[in-house]
Amino acid sequence: MQYHGPCTRNLLFLHPWFQVSILFSGFRGLQNTKRGSYWPAKEIHFQATHSMPPEKIEIFKSMESWAEKNLLKHLKPVEKSWQPQDFLPRADSEGFYEQVEELRERAKELPDDYFVVLAGDMITEEALPTYQTALNTLDGVRDETGASLSPWAVWNRGWTAEENRHGDLLNKYLYLSGRVDMRQIEKTIQYLIGCGMDFKCENNPYNFFIYTSFQERATFISHGNTARLARRYGDNKLAHICGTIAADEKRHEIAYTMIVEKLFEIDPDTTVLALADMMRKKIVMPALLIYDGQDDNLFDNYSAVAQKLGVYTAKDYAENIEFLVGRWNVEGLTGLSGEGRRAQDFVCRLPARIRRLEERAQEKANKAPAIRFSWIRY
Ligand SMILES: [Fe+2]
Ligand SMILES: [Fe+2]
């Protein structure tokens, strides 16, 4: 069976995790060949690798003392970090059952669609092994041993350790809520990690740090919106959970955008070319290959609900690009090569082009038929 998935049908349904991606053309090369039950449920073909010229590795080596001084301070020490237990009923306390009961009562007030988005967000967070793997494919900044003391590697592991709490907290919350089919969700996580993801960054840290800047900002917006909606439905405790995760994502966004800002300072031509390249290739969502064993269009369907609910919309997406292009002062870059100037021009015109697509995206999402998800107990 050939599966030419998400991108051709619902080009305009944007979701935090897929962000920049699927706006301009289809994501080619996504197939489901079902070679055997052990094989990934979905495959990405045409994967490119090692696009960064080897001499550029020196740039990242030369940035190590800068990274140690400026990047690592954006990680929070473990002793000062929140843990999932801070937001959940304590199983070792006397009031455990009452607290669970209260949590479940509050959860009853939230609509099914809200749980679709929350489950999809949690599943995406739970595929963290894929993202740490991706970080460690990067030339010049990968963790060479698994315990390397290079500041890049210390960041990679510290970031992963912080992110690990996000899936953990949402997973436990969803389990206790009684609103979801946990077995279906757990299967989806297993499928997704088994599929992996090609982020189209080609082992190139210029590309990847641009990708993560978009990604972290998008997750900040998305978790912020699930917090806002929870509050609207009267569940302030869930709002606090989502808001706390959003605050982590904001800190990560600040760190990654700062790396890219530094790259623009040291090597503006390569950086603006990388930015244009990532925009043209489309920044693909980590959960693009999401599959629950039943729904071949699960990614589309989940993204449509996120758009419809206003958790992450085409408007957010356009604003995200606009913000970052402004944050890096792409318009004000000088001394670029001809190719660099063309890339600059392309990137600066992008937000306006995307804005023209916003309305269509919302209209399409509003008209999308109601889909039943295997994750939800209807
Ligand atoms: Fe996260
Ligand atoms: Fe994050």
Automatic annotation (TrEMBL):
<keyword id="KW-0275">Fatty acid biosynthesis</keyword>
<keyword id="KW-0560">Oxidoreductase</keyword>
<dbReference type="Pfam" id="PF03405">
    <property type="entry name" value="FA_desaturase_2"/>
</dbReference>
<dbReference type="InterPro" id="IPR005067">
    <property type="entry name" value="Fatty_acid_desaturase-2"/>
</dbReference>
<keyword id="KW-0276">Fatty acid metabolism</keyword>
<feature type="binding site">
    <location>
        <position position="249"/>
    </location>
    <ligand>
        <name>Fe cation 1</name>
    </ligand>
</feature>
<dbReference type="InterPro" id="IPR012348">
    <property type="entry name" value="RNR-like"/>
</dbReference>
<keyword id="KW-0934">Plastid</keyword>
<feature type="binding site">
    <location>
        <position position="216"/>
    </location>
    <ligand>
        <name>Fe cation 2</name>
    </ligand>
</feature>
<dbReference type="GO" id="GO:0009570">
    <property type="term" value="C:chloroplast stroma"/>
</dbReference>
<feature type="binding site">
    <location>
        <position position="252"/>
    </location>
    <ligand>
        <name>Fe cation 2</name>
    </ligand>
</feature>
<keyword id="KW-0150">Chloroplast</keyword>
<comment type="similarity">
    <text>Belongs to the fatty acid desaturase type 2 family.</text>
</comment>
<keyword id="KW-0479">Metal-binding</keyword>
<feature type="binding site">
    <location>
        <position position="249"/>
    </location>
    <ligand>
        <name>Fe cation 2</name>
    </ligand>
</feature>
<dbReference type="InterPro" id="IPR009078">
    <property type="entry name" value="Ferritin-like_SF"/>
</dbReference>
<dbReference type="GO" id="GO:0045300">
    <property type="term" value="F:stearoyl-[ACP] desaturase activity"/>
</dbReference>
<keyword id="KW-0443">Lipid metabolism</keyword>
<dbReference type="GO" id="GO:0006633">
    <property type="term" value="P:fatty acid biosynthetic process"/>
</dbReference>
<feature type="binding site">
    <location>
        <position position="163"/>
    </location>
    <ligand>
        <name>Fe cation 1</name>
    </ligand>
</feature>
<feature type="binding site">
    <location>
        <position position="125"/>
    </location>
    <ligand>
        <name>Fe cation 1</name>
    </ligand>
</feature>
<keyword id="KW-0809">Transit peptide</keyword>
<dbReference type="GO" id="GO:0046872">
    <property type="term" value="F:metal ion binding"/>
</dbReference>
<keyword id="KW-0444">Lipid biosynthesis</keyword>
<feature type="binding site">
    <location>
        <position position="166"/>
    </location>
    <ligand>
        <name>Fe cation 1</name>
    </ligand>
</feature>
<feature type="binding site">
    <location>
        <position position="163"/>
    </location>
    <ligand>
        <name>Fe cation 2</name>
    </ligand>
</feature>
<comment type="pathway">
    <text>Lipid metabolism; fatty acid metabolism.</text>
</comment>
<keyword id="KW-0408">Iron</keyword>
<protein>
    <recommendedName>
        <fullName>Acyl-[acyl-carrier-protein] desaturase</fullName>
    </recommendedName>
</protein>
